[in-house]
Amino acid sequence: MKNHSARILIVDDEQSLREMLAVLLRREGYQIDQAANGEEALHIIAENNVDLIISDIKMPRLSGIDLLRRMREQDDDTTTIMITAFSSTEEAVEAMKLGAYDYITKPFNNDEIRLVVKNALERRQLQRENRQLKQQLKERFSFKNLIGESDAMSRLIALLERVAPSRANVLITGESGTGKELVAQALHLGSERKNHPFVPINCGAIPENLLESELFGHERGAFTGADKKKQGLFESAHLGTLFLDEIGELPMGMQVKLLRVLQEREFRRVGGTSTIPLDIRLIAATNQDLAANMAQGTFREDLYYRLNVVTIELPALRERRSDIPLLIQNFYRQKTGREDSYQIDKPALELLLNYDWPGNVRELENLVERCLVLGDQALLTVDSLPPQLQRKTATLTADLREIPAGFQLENWLEEQERQILMAALKQAAGVRTKAAELLGISFRQIRYRLDKLGIGDG
């Protein structure tokens, strides 16, 4: 907080002390108000935005302690410093319990006053910034700010509003790129656990040999390289929400351990002997058909029913095409920081509305970013769209005998790769390890290619 913007109220029945403090703090650039007692102070606080109060504890009519109590009753959290004539008094301790930032004793020196005031104002500024950040996060992930006015989105938001306050485990299903983590965060912020951690875990991104240690933590010496105790992600989520993304890729051994944690609400670190209690709400997500996985023996039925207390199925973008213009405007404002509208010409909008969007909302977000980089930042036109939307590319099985006008080899190859990956994922029922086997590449390679094209899970 800049000195010139901070307003300080000095409350003391001794006029000479008030004047001395006022002169000292004005020299530091602060704006100063004065009150002779607590009642006068309340009138000033009611009519002005005060950043800091410096108040004597013992005053006639309304003491500093009573002033502090009245402010708390009115839900006023203005930072307060108390003045006392004694080095240690019960009143000063009581003031601290009531929320006073600090107290100073008479007589005091000028350097002490400057330092305490500076620290108090810096603390208030940090508190304000933290509140603003929390509010921004709340607004970003609130149900009302999930973008869309289609029937599918209206039904989804209505369901989220009912489910969020409950303690029920939730399974979020839907295609890649539909925004499963965004919905999980919205559920967390709509619950009683919103002031506690939200911990996301991508079950497909952690190597199997490290998964147990990442989830449960480990004790020092539990294995080679474990030179110190480590807290796991489960423990980090205590009292909050644990989000297990790509739950269908959790190995069978870890499925057993997860089921035990959900049943007993406690766990042990790797190499540990004592149990640690765990209070979490679990939200899981998948783009796979877990019922088919159970039939194939790759997913435990008992775990499925533990996770699937409430199912929330996210609509694919092709099922909510009317939301596409709204989503484009949202991404435009996010990426440019501007509040005006991103114009879309009619031919481009027609192509956007008729495209199937295999990568869903994430693919649309990537497209908007591409258009802003390569096209007109004020107008989205057909020329700025990628080839798959301009219909200038051949299909997966097409025989490309003639090179069309405007052909771009790199774009064409990218689209072929996209279609091959999507076909492999569909054939493998969304299981990326199986899709990688079909294509003759490693799991790491397919994960890299999916992320590069914006068609990974989410």
Could you describe the 3D structure shown?
- The protein is an alpha/beta fold and 458 residues long.
- The protein has three domains: 3-137, 3-Layer(aba) Sandwich (Rossmann fold), CATH 3.40.50.2300; 142-315, P-loop containing nucleotide triphosphate hydrolases (Rossmann fold, 3-Layer(aba) Sandwich), CATH 3.40.50; 319-453, Helicase, Ruva Protein, domain 3.
- 47% of the residues lie in helices and 13% in strands.
- The protein has a five-stranded parallel sheet, with helices on both faces.
- The radius of gyration is 30 Å and the shape is globular.
- The two termini are 39 Å apart.
How are the strands of the biggest sheet laid out side by side? 2-1-3-4-5
What level of helicity do the residues show?
A: 40-55%
Output the CATH class name of the largest domain. Answer: Alpha Beta
Report how far apart the termini are: 39 Å
- SS elements, strand count: 16
**Biggest sheet architecture:** 5 strands, parallel
- Rg result: 30 Å
Structure classification:
alpha/beta
> Could you give me the name of the CATH homologous superfamily of the largest domain?
P-loop containing nucleotide triphosphate hydrolases
Q: What spatial form do the alpha-carbon principal axes imply? A: globular
The number of domains: 3
How many helices? The count is 19
Please identify, by name, the CATH architecture of the largest domain: 3-Layer(aba) Sandwich
Summed up, what is this model?
This protein has 458 residues and is α/β, with parallel strands linked by helices.
